[in-house]
Each structure stands twice: as C-alpha cells, then as structure tokens.
From TrEMBL:
Pfam families: Peptidase_M23. It comes from Streptomyces curacoi. This is Peptidase M23. CDD domains: M23_peptidase. The keyword Membrane applies. Keywords: Membrane, Transmembrane, Transmembrane helix. The lineage of its organism: Bacteria, Bacillati, Actinomycetota, Actinomycetes, Kitasatosporales.
Length: 277
C-alpha cells in the first residue's frame, strides 16, 4: 500500500472517529470535556498538512504534461460543464485525480434538458434527462482494469433544497465512505504509457465489459447514469496517471476532432455506422 493511500485511509478513519465520539458524547456521560471530541478532526488535518509538506501537494500533478489525444467517449450533441479549458483544477480540487476532469450532459436539442428549479420539483427521475442511458464508448484501444455497476441511480439534485442536501450532507458522507461512493458506477481503462481513463456515474447494470477485457476505440462500454455524487445524469470523464483515483494525479486530455470544449459550450460528435445511436 502506498503512503498516499495510507494517508487517505487514516484521514477517513479519524473523521469517522470524530462522528462516533460526537454521537457517543451526546448519548452517554463520557467524563471529559466536549471539545475533546474534535481531537480526531484536528489530527486528521495535521496529517494532511504533514503529508503536504513532506511529499508536495498531495494530489496535484507532479509536472506539466502534454495533453493525451483520445477519441470522444460520447456521440451526439452534448454540453460541457466544469471544463478544464476554463480552469484547473476543473472541479475546484485535485483530489481523486480530477485536475483535468470534465462533465458532459446530453442536449439533443437546445433547452430539452430539465433545468434547475428553486423549490419544485424537489427532484426528478433519472430518465427525465436525455443523458440517462446514452451509450458511452472506449476512447482508445485499452484494457479494463476496474468495472463497477452495482450502485443505484438516484433522483436528481436539481432544486435548491436537494442541492443543499447534496452539498451539506450527502457529499460528505460519500467522501467518508470512499472514492467508489463518489464516482458511483464506473470504469477505468488502462490506455498504456501510464495513462488511465475514468468514466464515472454510469447506469446500474449497463456495463458490457469486465475487468481484464481488451477493448477497441469506439466500442460501447456502458451507458450514462446517475450514480454516485451527482446532481443529474451525466458523464464525468478524466485521465489519470494511475488506476486508483484515491492516489492518482490528473492528466490533461484532448478529444480528437473536438479538443476540449469550454464550460457551457455545446459540441457534437457524429455517430458512425459502427456506433450505437
């Protein structure tokens, strides 16, 4: 086990210890001041600071790399969100190897995707969004090194109350539970030369490949879903320098024939006769 992985595990255990102590202190007379409950929290952040100073920024890329050119993972008309073309890290953090990650949502026609609402409806079914069930394709010839599709597709978080719940409660719980609960159902492909592709938030039961399979560029792999830490059905795509998002660092990408779409930019990928509609 790498030192970076050990730091992540110890950090999560200390965070869980804090929660347990708070619950126990509220239910029992433990005989010590309440503020001692925060000792595990303080220690967890101290460990992160020490790891940062000892090994450099723990999640940021070690050195600048030229973007790796791969095929687009989708076909049809899509909208880019949280794009590394506008800023890095694109999602506000280097954690989970997502320095250069991008989110894309399907928009077959303008304004066909349900929009954000302040109060109602609180949530929508996943199949209300055109991205749900859209086919996802291999971006290169590769080997499948991780394939997970047992997690459920949940309702959207596209109202203000639902979004606040996601940010204040659900995201924190998922982070403590580990990277699998963040990315949901997912695939990781080994593209060779120390580069790995992550497809996150896949539809439950939609995988057409298994770990160890060899795939070719353009081959259908799974379908877009709404599992993990998501507000609505979309594909979260990124390249990394390792197969474990907990310890990997981000690698920049560019999609062949498209480049890197900017935030809120629509792009279209033609469907060939060998690809699913």
């Amino acid at each position: 086990m790498s030192a970076r992985k050990l730091v992540k595990i110890v950090y999560r255990l200390l965070q869980l210890t804090f929660i347990g102590l708070v619950i126990a202190h509220a239910a029992l007379d433990l005989g010590y001041p309440w503020w001692w409950n925060f000792a595990p929290i303080a220690l967890s952040y101290l460990i992160l600071v020490v790891a940062h100073r000892w090994g450099g920024a723990p999640d940021s890329p070690r050195a600048a790399r030229e973007p790796v050119e791969v095929d687009p993972p989708v076909t049809g008309r899509w909208l880019a969100l949280n794009s590394p073309a506008d800023r890095t890290p694109s999602h506000g953090t280097h954690a989970y190897g997502q320095t250069y990650a991008i989110d894309v949502v399907a928009e077959p026609e303008p304004d066909t995707r349900p929009g954000f609402r302040m109060l109602w409806p609180l949530a929508r079914r996943a199949d209300a969004f055109p991205a749900f069930g859209a086919p996802l394709l291999a971006v290169a010839d590769a080997t499948v090194v991780r394939a997970v599709d047992s997690q459920r597709d949940h309702l959207s978080r596209t109202s203000l109350p639902a979004l606040l719940y996601l940010m204040a409660v659900e995201a924190s719980v998922r982070d403590l539970a580990g990277v699998r609960r963040i990315v949901g159902n997912h695939l990781i492909l080994d593209l060779g030369d120390g580069t790995y592709a992550l497809y996150a938030h896949l539809r439950r039961g939609s995988l057409t490949v298994r770990e160890g399979d060899r795939v070719t560029a353009g081959q259908p792999l799974a379908r877009c879903g709404n599992s993990g830490n998501t507000t609505e059905p979309h594909l979260h795509f990124q390249l990394m320098d390792g197969p474990d998002p907990d310890t990997a660092r981000g690698v920049p990408f560019t999609w062949r024939g498209i480049g890197v779409p900017r935030n809120r930019e629509t792009f279209e990928v033609p469907t060939t006769t060998s690809q699913p509609a």
